[in-house]
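assembly run, all chains below
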Amino acid sequence: MTLLQTQKLSAFYGDFQALFDIDVTVEQGETVAIIGANGAGKTTFLRALAGAIGSAPEMVVFDGQPIGGKTPHEIVRLGIAMVPEGRRLFPSLSVEENLQLGSHSERAGPWTLKRVYELFPRLFDLRQLPSTALSGGQQQMAAVGRGLMSNPRLLLCDELSLGLAPVIIRDIYQCLGAISAEGTTVVLVEQDINRALDASARFYCFQEGHLALTAPTKNFDRAAITAAYFGL
Amino acid sequence: MDWINILIQGALLGGFYALFAIGLSMSFGIMRLVNIAHGDLIVLSAYVAFVVTQNTGLDPFSSLIIVVPVMFVLGYALQRGLLNQTLSGGLLPPLLVTFGISIIIQNGLLQGFGAYDHRLQEGAIETASLRFPGGLSVGVFPLVVFAVAVLAIASLQLLFYRTRLGRAFRAVSDDADTAELMGIDNRKLYALALGIAMVFTALAGVLFGIRTIFAPSAGPIRLILAFEAVIIGGLGNMWGTLVGGIVLGLAQAVGAALDPTWQILAGHLAFLAILIVRPSGLFPRTRD
Amino acid sequence: MESVRVERGTRASRVFAFVAVPLVVALVAMPWWSDDAGNMRLIGEMAYYLALAQLWNLLAGYAGLVSVGQQAFVGLGGYALFYLTGPANMNVYLALLLAGPFAGLMAIPVSFAVFRLRGAYFAVGTWVVSEVFSLFASLISVLGAGSGLSLTPSILRQISPDRDIRDTILYLMSLAITVFVFAIVYLLLRSRHGLALTAIRDSEPASASLGVNTFRTKFIIYIATAACTGLIGGLIFLQKLRISPEAGFSINDWTVVVIFMVVIGGIGTLEGPFIGMLIYIVLRELLADYGSIYLMLMGAIAIAVMLKAPFGIWGWVVQRYDLQLFPVGRRLARAPAEDASQQ
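ok done. output:
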């Protein structure tokens, strides 16, 4: 069943239009990748889904309900969680407090502090430290864990691989696989095209705020992707 | 010159200033809002207590049962209804709107109560003092105020560091945008923050009204004293604010000992000196 | 090929000049066509409030320095005048001339302290400084301590022994100083320093990265504003004949009212303070019998304006109609082709 659908989604920063009529569909349980160059509108798209940027109500439909224009915290309560670009853990909070903060909306579900520590055992050892004391990879795990703590039906992941070493990225994407296996629907934004395509069933390629290409990832022609990516 | 007594008096006075400063510090820290009306809200609390004591026969301490909830609701409504709308407009809107509120409160009190001095009477405790060996004499009321300040800050620290709400306050103070993305209703949280701040402001106001005569124009100087305590202590640190208050109180006590008319001025000069030499205060914590 | 040229004026400003000049002439000539000394006092008061408002607007609306302590310089200017003409026995005109520079000089150490603070903290800091000056004034006996000083009749006679002539001179001085202050502000904003200021206001880091010396610019503006404010303070108290710490450094009289004028009229515009000043005077005269209600009303209006129309009345006009009566910007306009290719 279709969990999320955007219909002619357009978004603006003041007078500047960042997204033009984006139509994206995400089925329950699948992992969808959004790829594109810098400035293509990928993060803007996620922020529009999360409610950080306004849109008309019908532009974003979640589980049959129009949610465009709702506030971010209402959207979390409905079951969409964000792992923001750059992690954005709270510096004044410890690792564990960051995770606990994720469950502020008190949605019911399988993800508890214990489950998150099982998924990311390293975090358990670091849990009392201020979040700023963690390495990039550990912070990314904590950010994902924080998102999971709200028991989302849809997890939005923005640039998980940003600034991380390949070995760490591989670990994180393995965990993402485990999360997806639990039934969580995932939309991930990635600059690393190979990672994105390996982890997803379908992808959308953005180019300067427009949707340039969409297809299933399996066996798809990379040359066509490159062309769409750069707007050739 | 009985310097020990003077210094103790000054330090205890610092407790008063710290109590004044709590509400202001919460606004700075959580909403990044400098509430110019803060001092007037302290004075307003004293007037509310006055009305309550006049109409119910309760003594000022007991009147807190009514004054505190009233000020809580006022703070919540003020933030929710008015101040929340100023937060995204940059520097001027919050400053000027709270400035406007300050003028409205001052003149409203003037219209309602006149320009004369008022006083809250608590009775014997106002002048009681404890005597210690060696000629040491400590006023009971200042001691009570200082104890209230310490308890207030301790309870706030407990709130901030041991509760779900406190965690949310700290998160919003760090990064309001991300906090909202994590499911926190910022607007409601800010309103709650000002409501809680008002609880301490009400406490400060009632104690202030017992200790000193007050008039509608007494607000601005309270704001300045609170502001000085926060800046001296360093932003983002409640215990630092207590230290800041004590430093201010000590400076004033020394000034007053030299000449009573120099009291407030001595405090201002100490503030300016610290500002020039150590602009971020004694124990700064926030990243601003 | 068409070329462009830089235009400084707008059509509205040219029309406005036609209207404004006769008006100014009429005001200047007022002592001769009006018998009412009360009217002259009122216009004189409007003039100096307008000057104070233009200065505060320059500081806050253009330089981004929101000061809640400008009353310090009003008081400093006033006290300078009283001290110089009184105990120092100086000629009243000379004293008035020195009042401004004195305030400007005092602003230098003040800036060392307050420039440490930013934003709203800066605002409260300037307020503290003003309180310090007020307290000093109340403690120094040669300045009359708590009760202040009065101008002796001999000082007033230096202006003129005749009362009507004296009123006229003071009135014309009010107008002259206001025009002078406005001219300084207008010319400053039209110059490249004004362009720097607008850049700083829009984005301090960006303008700094382009080579604008933001600290020096703000410092100069702060000192210059303080000096002009001091001059006006001298003039105000020359007319009031008495000064005391409470009156000289009154935040209500010199800052609250001025801020409301600028905010309601339109901060960051030259036209705004005019409108704000007119609204204030009208409200005050209308509600004079109701005590401080007019202040509460102004407070409420200021709040409403900040929430609904943060750029004030004139800002709203500019947004709707793109009208500028005192243009400070530069526009590109098409100029006729240099080489007329007609034949």
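Residues 3-31 of chain B form the longest helix (29 residues).

The beta strands of chain B are 129-132, 136-139.

not gonna interpret more than that til we talk
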